[in-house]
Amino acid sequence: MKFLRANWKVCKVQNFIAINRCFKCLGYHHKAADCRNGLCCFKCAGEHKSSECNLSTQVCVNCIRFNKKTRDPNKKVNVNHKPYSSCCKCHQFMEKLVTSQTNYE
């Protein structure tokens, strides 16, 4: 975190990382209005609205999708967290990707 001094005040500044994500399928790189995928529950990754879900524990559909695509068992990631959580390996990857593609000039 860095600081900015302006008019005798010191303010904390940090990067704002805008990740394009869908609130219908919970995927990345598109919005719900443009989504071609099915509905995905935010809690259990099932094909229903999150408001209709009775589960109290949450799993990350993006990490589930990643694990299905990954053949190397050593690269499998934990799925027991909310999608877009700061501990989510998929979300961390997207943050790094967006940051690397950002022009700061």
Overview of the structural elements:
The chain contains two helices and two strands, in the order ββαα. With 105 residues, the chain is an alpha+beta fold. A hairpin with a 2-residue loop joins β1 and β2. Helices cover 20% and strands 10% of the residues. The two termini are 18 Å apart. Strands 1-2 form a two-stranded antiparallel sheet. The mean pLDDT is 90.
Short recap of the structure:
This protein is 20% helix and 10% strand. It is built from two helices and two strands; from the N terminus they run ββαα.
**Sheet/helix structural class:** alpha+beta
How many individual helices? 2
| End-to-end Cα distance | 18 Å
Shape: globular
Please tally the β strands and state the result: 2
Radius of gyration (CA) equals 17 Å
The order of strands across the largest sheet is 1-2
Task: Indicate the proportion of strand residues.
Answer: 5-15%
